[in-house]
Amino acid sequence: MDGEPVLIAGAGPVGAVTALALAQRGIPVRLFEAAGEVNDAPRASTLHPATLELLSGIGLLNEVIAQGLVAPTFQFWDRPTKRLIAEFDHAILKHDTACPFVVQCEQHKLAKLCIERLKAFRHSDVCFQSAVTSIADLGDGVEATIETSSARHPVRGSYLVGADGGRSTVRKALDIDFEGYTFPERFLVLTTRHDFVEAHGVAFRAYFSDPDEWSALFKVAGNDGRGAWRAVFPTIPGQSDDEIMNEAATEARLQKFFPKPGRYEVLHRNIYHAHQRVAARFQKGRIFLAGDSAHVNNPLGGLGLNCGIHDALLLANLLSSVLLGERPRSGLSQYEAIRRPINIEYVQQQTIANKKRLEEKDPATREANFAALRKIAKDPTAHRAFLMRTSLLESVRRQAVV
């Protein structure tokens, strides 16, 4: 039964990258997505150097750069005083990676690139409006129940990858605990055309520490290539969606952030719960979890999407090696053994620390944080070490020798 396709639930960037990497190795794949098309709502967009290296390995680097914005630097600011605290430049990694920069490329663009590439492989199949509603490990293969608008039918495969998001049907069907917590405050994202580089000298990625209302700014290319900025803010627990997102409230929030003549043009508003959770297991038998189905985190640092892509490419490599007879099936246990600890150490710990730094209220601790960031930025050795970790290059190098 190992000659049957690998089944993948979820055609977001993690599922699509997994499918493409497997197809390129000659493995039959079937990719199922409950929605009618790739979700292009504003979500993750930051692709770190480690991820760019991996995407280069499956031939996507040039297209990702073409559809995104190159962001060589990022900044930390003190929002109340409008002081630039420190700036970090990925160029210091020029001897460590062929990609010493970040690319701001929205995740739906990456998913669509992969799906378009999959059309070249006769042994790949992408099915929209096809939800994976139940799964079974048959011992010598897997079976998924696929539900469309008109029918429900079983599909058999060799293995199954659950890349179906934080509310993963696959994870729930496997009865795997999603360990961690949800923040009491929700996160608000506002997308605007206002040019924060020209007006304020803000880098394409910038984090603003504030004891009352921290914030983060990211520039993306947008679907039209004209460029847009996403501003992220915490909200007060208990507020209704309308209280947070009505036009007057969002305008007041942006004007408080960066006052300007005239109103802000807000292109998109979104509010969501933020979590720090990791699945207790990433594998049960022939079924695997990858991306948000396996781990979720707050967006500060832009690490969640990257870690999911790293999951996808390691898992695709292991699965293809087993299916091609290059390694025993027992080698698949390396996936969980490598990816779960790396997520906890490099993503969970880092994103929690990032949020704590931005929301710190004690004046002395805030100034100590600022002094530490300045010291790191000014010392080339410390600067490089800081970026090796925050860009996930350190974690990928560690994974390579496990």
Number of beta strands: 20
Largest sheet: 8 strands, mixed
Distance between the termini: 30 Å
Q: What average pLDDT do the residues reach?
A: 96
CATH homologous superfamily (4th level) name of the domain at 6-72 and 104-179 and 276-358:
FAD/NAD(P)-binding domain
Number of continuous helical runs? 13
Helix/strand structural class: alpha+beta
General form? globular
Helix content: 25-40%
Can you describe what's shown?
The protein has helices spanning about 15-25, 50-55, 60-65, 105-120, 170-175, 195-200, 240-245, 245-255, 305-325, 335-360, 365-380, 380-390, 395-400, and strands at about 5-10, 30, 45, 70, 75-80, 85-90, 100-105, 125, 130-135, 140-145, 150-155, 160, 180-190, 205-210, 215-220, 230-235, 265-280, 285, 285-290, 295. Helix content is about 35%, strand content about 25%. The longest helix has 27 residues, at about 335-360. It contains 13 helices and 20 strands. It is globular and about 60 Å long. Helix 1 runs parallel beside helix 4 (about 105-120) and helix 9 runs antiparallel to helix 10. The chain has a domain at about 5-70 and about 105-180 and about 275-360: FAD/NAD(P)-binding domain (3-Layer(bba) Sandwich). An eight-stranded mixed β-sheet has the order 6-5-14-15-16-13-17-20, with helices on both faces. With about 400 residues, it is an alpha+beta fold. The mean pLDDT is about 95.
